[in-house]
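for the record, two folds in this file. i put them one after another cuz i was lazy. first one right below, seq on top, structure tokens after. the second one comes after a little note so u can tell where it starts
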Amino acid sequence: MSRLASTTHKVFSNLFKITPEPFGLDISDTSFKIAKLSKKKASLLLQHFGDIDIDAGLLEDGVITDEEKLANVIKNGVGSLTTGDIATRYASCSLPEQKTYLRIVQLPKMEKRDMGDAISWEIEANVPISLSEAYYDWQIIHPVNEDKTRAFDHYDILVSVAPKDLVDSYSRMLKKAGLVPFSFEPESVALVRSIIKGGFSEKPLLVVDLGQARTSFIVYAGSAIRFTSSAKLSGDGISEIIMRSMGVDKSEAERLKMGVGLDRDMDPRVFEAIIPALTDLKEQIQRYMDFYAEHSAHTHNGEPRVSRVLVSGGGALLKGIEKYLALSLNIPVEIANPWVNILGDDVKTIPELPYEESIRYATVLGLSLNR
């Protein structure tokens, strides 16, 4: 997908025969994360990373309220990395999931040169903003198990749409911070690039991203996202539940979340405090899996039911969450591996960034892989 991307880097790449290596910049209402991967022979290495707080109120539900102040925070944060100076100024930046739109639309078989106009009509019909007020991109979703002997009567098209005023605001802010926008993309697109091996899943899987401010649900099959949604439950929300119930500060709540979590034998009070929220999460996951199974028959998906769940985000650090969900949903559940497309499956420790902590960096690592 390229129409959401800045074209600046393409112009200079063609002129000077250079290939910019952007760093990932994942921005939320409360903090931003940075990750820069560098090539070393045939592999990639984590060269820079960081997690920096943002003052309250500079972003509200993903919308920038003060571009100048946020630009200064970003600029100072990039310059303060303990891993050293990032040589590149190109940034691959996330857009807030709740402000963007990913839709699958269908088109009858037609010449590809005619698809652009048809997709424009579909966007107008399926997205609640005017096409004149949006940037968009699209890609054809190929069948998961393509049977060349079977004639398909339509195309499945994944459409990504973002409001112009949102993208333009992020672009201006980055430029004020001395950075060059390389690309903009929804958080879900970057996340799946990081955690799905080779960018392909033969059977549908559901990603549950328990982020700082909200949880995203992403169904992925073949080589594309098929469905997204979100809810207010978050990793920080679970910590706040523990804080209120146990009468502890945030630091202690985080320790209890990661060290005790859903282990009832260690401390039943923590289990009792968070189990209502986890029960609600489980029920939402089940609803989304059922919804997808009921509505996927018209697409070229092959298998209609979700086969496994991947949990990512800071909330994935809740001890025992994958075991609880697996037992409750009767489906395999795993903690996502953000290094699967960088360093391979068997890596358990990353220099300077512990494996357990790196799950918080899944989205920004996916942004850094966009090159």
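(here's the note) second protein begins now
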Amino acid sequence: MVRGILSALGYSGRVKSPTYTLLEPYHAAGLDLCHFDLYRLQDENEWESAGFRDEFDGQAIFLIEWPEKAQSFIPPADLLIELKILPQGREVVIKGKTTMGWACLEQL
């Protein structure tokens, strides 16, 4: 999904999974994007000790996989995207969780 979003924004570079690095930053269409994969986080304190709080300066878009692993440290999501695997294909549900999220959905 992150590759698709970046591609839609015109990004043509390599898109790597942040499974081991936890964070991969990107710049596309004049936007800064940060892709987090928190699956390997053992506890929320790892988020804090890695200095990730500093990334949340209001200047970037965050795409976070496994956000529940750092739930008390990250701000509430504007959009919640749920992917469901079906017997044939997939289902995507996008929910606005904030005023900003609802505004983004209206633009789709």
